[in-house]
Specification:
Blueprint (H helix, E strand, L loop, with lengths): L7 H25 L13 H32 L6 H23 L13 H25 L4 H16 L10 H36 L3 H22 L12 H31 L6 H24 L3 H7 L3 H30 L8 H34 L4 H7 L1 H26 L13 H4 L1
Helix pairs in contact: 1-2, 1-3, 1-14, 2-3, 2-4, 2-5, 2-11, 3-4, 4-5, 5-6, 6-7, 6-8, 6-9, 6-11, 7-8, 8-9, 9-11, 11-12, 12-13, 12-14
């Protein structure tokens, strides 16, 4: 840690990993309900556990992104944060918003718009928190007078994520119209600007971990961002099959969605070439595992599995089935969960007394999570193929279909349990080391200029 204010990141990471663990609790609860009987049917029904599971994903990943930014920006700009007090106030507001939202979901207080179920007061708090965050980061960069491409892409992604949240504030009486505008936030987040955030964090980690030339890394970053924008924006239309838009949008959406893996292939090549040149020389090999793992698993989950059902001729059968869950779980985990865990693993030796090379528990966590998520992906895939055939082609009823594919949910719970053990080990490894918050080297005013 080169700057004292980078210690703010620890508290964001702590909240993020705690919420990650809570998300898994509700995910396992949701999966178990497919097997029945459900003793919690009238206390925590499926719709409630699933809403909490999916919304906790958004909250903890964004919390991790903000923590990563509070770590990266001082290091890149060579300057202390503008206001650590503002960063802590922002975190308190974020936690209060998340806790009260979860309590609200238990009492059915929400909008019913998937992943954007937050009631309007909570959405306003989210906007306020993001404005505080962007102001703090913007003033830090202004004070330093230094803005690198890496942090520019990272902050640009976060700024656009805040901007694209604004359609979520609108309320529509027509559910179809609501779903149409929902994709303007959700798709352009997860298949657009969040990939900018991932790319920015990935570039920062590769520069630090591989010793690669910054100019070369940042040229790769420009290519990735360009491909994300070209494919991601028009690729939004591949979600439109079910909402009654003109048919030409299906062709546009299918074609440009098919281009999205190109950006992800570029990202994987980008990571591989950097690490290959360095020869794995950096002592923090645990962070290297998470960094390269994120790039490769993103190509698998977001790229190849997304491509598998993005074309309209396929998507008309698979949309809204467990095939979507297959793609969604692998994509979110590889692209966003793993990159947050990567930056945490990189920063932790500077924030705590964890050995820089990592611990045995840390490596067990990595492999158990990776294996568990791969198994979950296969379980969703096999269940989804059976569901599509039985329900949408053969015309079997939904509940009858679920009974015939239950064996795949047994597989899902087993593999999800393996994944959960990996996450539990990561959380224990995070909190078991005492804090130190010591500067690695003195930073003089001249150097910070």
């Amino acid at each position: 840690m080169r700057y004292k204010s980078q210690s703010v990141a620890y508290w964001y990471f702590a909240v993020a990993v705690a919420l990650f663990g809570l998300q898994l609790v509700f995910g396992l609860l949701s999966a178990a309900k497919y097997l029945g009987p459900d003793p919690l049917l009238y206390i925590l029904p499926f719709d409630v556990t699933k809403v909490i599971h999916t919304n906790l994903l958004i909250v903890w990943v964004l919390c991790g992104f903000m923590g990563a930014t509070y770590w990266v920006v001082p290091d890149e700009s060579r300057c202390e944060l503008h206001s650590t007090k503002l960063a802590y106030v922002q975190l308190v507001l974020w936690v209060l918003m998340g806790v009260t939202a979860i309590i609200g979901y238990l009492f059915r207080w929400g909008t019913g718009n998937k992943l954007l179920e937050q009631p309007l007061p909570h959405k306003i708090v989210i906007v306020v928190v993001m404005l505080m965050f962007l102001y703090n980061i913007g003033m830090t960069i202004k004070k330093s007078g230094r803005l690198t491409t890496t942090e520019g892409v990272l902050i640009g992604g976060l700024g656009l994520a805040a901007l694209l949240y604004l359609p979520a504030l609108l309320q529509f009486d027509n559910y179809t119209v609501s779903i149409y505008y929902r994709w303007w936030t959700i798709h352009l987040w997860v298949e657009g600007v969040w990939e900018m955030i991932q790319g920015g964090i990935l570039a920062y980690l590769l520069i630090r971990l591989s010793g690669a030339d910054r100019e070369v890394m940042e040229k790769w970053l420009y290519v990735i961002v360009g491909l994300v924008f070209i494919a991601g924006i028009l690729g939004t239309a591949h979600h439109y099959y079910w909402v009654g838009v003109p048919s030409y949008w299906l062709v546009i959406g299918g074609a440009f969605s098919a281009l999205e893996p190109v950006a992800l292939i570029g990202m994987a090549m980008y990571a591989y070439s950097a690490i290959r040149r360095s020869g794995l020389a950096h002592p923090n090999k645990l962070a290297l595992h998470w960094t390269v793992g994120s790039a490769v698993f993103t190509l698998f989950g977001a790229g190849l599995l997304g491509l598998a059902h993005t074309f309209p001729s396929v998507n008309k059968w698979t949309h809204g089935t467990l095939i979507t869950a297959m793609h969604g779980h692998a994509a979110f985990y590889g692209a966003y969960a793993m990159i947050v865990l990567a930056i945490i693993s990189f920063a932790l030796p500077s924030l705590t007394r964890r050995p820089e090379e990592g611990s045995a528990m840390g490596y067990w966590s990595f492999w158990l999570q990776l294996g568990g998520m791969f198994g979950m992906t296969l379980s969703f895939a096999t269940a989804g193929i059976g569901q599509v055939y039985l329900e949408r082609i053969m015309g079997l009823g939904f509940l009858d279909t679920q009974l015939k594919i239950q064996i795949h949910f047994v597989m899902l719970i087993i593999t999800a349990s393996i994944f959960a053990i990996g996450v539990a080990l990561f959380i224990i490894d995070f909190f078991r080391y005492p804090l130190r918050f010591e500067l690695a080297e003195a930073v003089t005013p001249a150097r910070a200029a």
